[in-house]
Predict the 3D structure of the following.
Amino acid sequence: MSPEFLLTTLIVVLAPGTGVLYTLATGLAHGTRLSIAAALGCTLGIVPSLLAAITGLAAIMHTSALAFQVLKVLGVIYLLYMAWRTLRDSGALAVNSDDKGDEHPRPSLSRVVATGALINVLNPKLSVFFLAFLPQFLDPTGASTIPQMLVLGGAFMLMTLVIFIGYGAGAAWLRRHVVGRPSVMNWLRRTFAGAFVLLGAKLALAER
């Protein structure tokens, strides 16, 4: 595994995207524990795209306008749904207390993980990215292609998990300074909702 691969992966993972946004929002609203669940979900959401790239399904999707458009539309709808829930104070930034009678019950770990996974599963550009990205770092004199891509994909996922946990932990630390300030939370809610809309628009304009 080359230093170039690790450095490029670090840059890619650090770049703001839907997974980063969701992990930050979860950390701000619910603290460290659920932000780790969000990071885990976003990381698990990489698996289908990675397997698609390894098996060549990504190449099929890349050449099939219908398959790409269907997945893209589903992804855009889901991002707009996330924005709508955030604005309604019922999504990732619905700040909850630990009281059983709270208006917004704390989401379960499984729900947070599933939401994070769906964010990446419904991104058709991810499998195409892996198809273009991983082969650049294969060693032609080494093992066969599939084991090498599995190792590279595993390293990419591990780095994603670690960095996203760091993002979530930072947001959870900031939480104590903003949760008790409704004006700040309202501003954050609008900002995150707007970011989800922008990411949805970016995906809607994406070309194969």
